Amino acid sequence: MLTRRHLLKQSGLTLGAGLLFSGGFSMQASATSRSGFWLPEESEPHLRTFMQWPVSRAAYDDSWFLADLQRSIADIANTIVEFEPVVMLMDQRYEKKARRLLSDGIEIWTIPTDDLWCRDSGPVFVRNSSGDLAVSHLNFNGWGNKQPHPNDGRIARTIADRLGLPFLDNGLVGEAGGVESDGAGTLIAHESSWINPNRNKGSKAEVTRLLLDALGADKVIWAPGRSGADITDYHIDALARFVEPGHIVIQMPEKPDPQDPWSVAAFETYDILQQAIDAAGRKLRLTVLPEPYDIRVTAPDFVASYVNYYVCNGAVIAAEFGDRDTDSEARKTLQALYPGREIVMLNVDPVGEVGGGIHCATQQQPAT
What we know:
alpha/beta; globular; 4-stranded mixed beta sheet; 23% helix
């Protein structure tokens, strides 16, 4: 089974090409998308949440584990539907079995899927000043053709067609999990997930222009990230998220470990964000969440990210990992960051075991 944070099995593991990029570069452009659409911040009201039912035997050859993973996806969906509508995408042949796990309130759309990562392969909804929606296509290619995606690669266009929405495609290749938007003109991203020949062959300036245009933003704050160590090339949404314009929450270990390239990359991103100025000319405020240590799953490729939470109408759905102290601290911090929303923490360890989290498994459709 290929996990999304599958460490490279080779002697003399290096920090990866991503750490060789120049850090802290940002490029401004007169970028509200040429179409007039932009990506709203996640905490704005939603019409619904989309999710995908995982079935791929190319990704999960262990049938027992796949069943556990499907139960975790059902748990996430059943929790979110208490706060807003949820649509689960799947081939019709899986519907009868899936319905046993899913709440009656969850709508099933017959759109075939491969894997669960709706953040990456699902539709990225953008909105204009009139409140109209469109789908900005990021041309999902299996994280640089690392995983087969015959169904997932068609999901965004299929949903746009079903909803009768404009389908905007400027040729950019990537995933929504690889970029964070404050909804007010500023993006943060790791270069390793975008300025990478497995997605985009253009220069940094060219990729920046395409990303700004696709998401209707004015400025990208780039950090190097880490290329080649996991399937995503280090998505930013496992490390740092916008809470609101000018405010980022980031998960950090207590101190850097020079022997751990993930730690090195995380501290590099932190330092860049700490010095950065957003599109409105503000210095960013950073709130730090702790790294959990005493957790149920200790595999080296397990993703234990509190930051990979999902903000839905009236709630924040986050993971807990069995570390009593840090789970409690994460809950308190999230409650302070999102006052008035219920904080719901779930055991979704199977999702962490394959290199992701709750945010990776969801995609919001903003209210119009």
